[in-house]
Amino acid sequence: MALSSPDSGAAPTAPGAAASASDAPPRPGTAPPPGRGLLPLLLLGNTAMYALYIGVAGILLALQVEQVDPANKVANFGLIAGVSAIFATVFNPVAGALSDRSGRRDPWILGGGLAAVPAMYLLGLADTILLITIAWCLGQAVMNVYQAAITSVVPDRVPTTARGKASAAVGLGLPFGSTLGALVGAAYSDDHRTGYLVFGAMVAAAAVLFTACGREQRLPARAPMPVRSQLAAFAGALRDHDFRWAFIGRALLVLGYFAVSGYQLYILQDHTVLPDGLEPGAAVAVLMPVTSVAMVVSTVLGGYLSDRFDRRKLFVGASAALSAVALVIPAVSASWSAMLVFAVVNGLAFGCYMAVDTALVTMVLPKAEDAARDMGVLNIANAGPQIVAPFVASVVVSLTGGYTALFVVAAVLAVAGALAVRPIRGVR
Predict the structure, then answer these.
(1) pLDDT for 292
(2) Close Cβ partners of 278 (under 8 Å, ≥ 6 residues apart)
(3) Cα–Cα dist 257/385, whole Å
(4) Residue 335: helix, strand or coil by DSSP?
(5) Which candidate, 227, 169, 228, 160, places its Cα nearest to that of 50?
(6) Helix, strand, or coil (residue 273)
(7) Does residue 141 contact residue 87 with C-beta atoms inside 8 Å?
(8) Which of 49, 120, 177, 273 has the fewest C-beta atoms lying within 10 Å of its C-beta?
């Protein structure tokens, strides 16, 4: 665990020093400020993860599905995305609970990262909708083992006073990863097999670097729990008032976000009036960097200002409301200019939201010793809506014959997500 040296006079907590009479490691959130090495490693690890999610699910998978069955691409893509998200929903909290029990994060980060390579190789070989679905389910499973462990590093190793900065480092992985994923995905749009392997190699390399360069301090191992007790513990986290509302807010915003972003390539093909000579795949590669620059700015500012003013709810609610405004723009106009404006505003909103909401969530965890499990439960708010979003989007598009109504539905969900943070009492 990469930690800075403790202050003079404080009980030493660095690896190799006695933390207490029993040599127990510090409780999550009470450790000294993270060393300089941890934040870059978090940025690298999350950048690789989001690059795969965006490049594979947003470009290569959509093109592969269209290649197999062009006439039914919307329904097929929705089916694949929805079924595979079930695996994400299951594996994320389960992997988090297992890493809690072992007292380690690094083995799970490394194992999930290395397993991404064979999973992506199998996805590249798939040539039917059924095989694509099976292969992407496997990909979602291994990536959520990786994600559950790396997500838990912040509550494990970073004190609450520095959560904004650490969350900003995690949040920056989304714009950086989105840009990288879009560029690599566009570059391999005619050779998806190689593209899949490139993304798998990125995650594997990031996992190796994270575990080799970081210095993990092992937490106390947890005693095995019966399956019934584990299920009760998962449900128990949602009985906590603040945690429940944080879960609801995240779920609503993510549902609206993925209902649109999951179909971005098809939206550019069938809804947006692109300039002459600009292909949809190339348009994605233009929009992603625009969104990413906006996200970088708002992620850094959001994380810093939320720490500076000690206000999380204000920033989370305002950014969710701004996301709703962004979603209305392409509903009003189908022009390329409107999509560019949408990309900027949506980037500003989502970057700030993810940075500050991550900090907020770590402050409302029911139990510090169950950080990974409870973060895994919260990550259901990320993965669960992805199960519903493709079906919602495909139904809305099928019933209305276009994507305008989809933007409106997503905007309403974003507004509901903004309102959901108001009942939280334990965080300002």
Answers:
(1) 85
(2) 286, 336
(3) 9
(4) strand
(5) 169
(6) strand
(7) yes
(8) 273
Q: 166: which residues sit within 8 A by CB, 6+ positions away?
A: 34, 38, 39, 42, 154, 158, 359
Average pLDDT over residues 88-100: 78
Instruction: Tell the CATH topology of 38-214+236-420.
Output: Growth Hormone; Chain: A; (1.20.1250)
Contact of 229 with 351, CB cutoff 8 Å: no
Answer for the pair 148, 96: CB distance below 8 angstroms, yes or no: yes
Closest CA to 345 of 357, 364, 358, 331: 331
Task: Check: CB of residue 348 under 8 Å from CB of residue 302.
Answer: no
Which of the residue ranges 113-117, 269-273, 277-281, 367-371 would you say has the lowest mean pLDDT? 367-371
Distances (CA, A) of 212 to 26, 37, 204, 216, 296: 22, 12, 12, 10, 27
Number of residues assigned to the chain: 428
d(CA 270, CA 334) in angstroms, rounded, equals 10
**Residue of higher predicted confidence among 394 and 2:** 394
For residues 251 and 216, what is the distance between their CA atoms, to the nearest angstrom?
31
DSSP state of 34: B
* DSSP 8-state code for residue 310: T
**Which one, of 193, 206, 192, lies nearest residue 51 by Cα?**
206
Distance CA 63, CA 52 (A): 15
Torsion over CA: 326, 328, 334, 335 (sign): negative
Give me 86's structure tokens: 């079930």
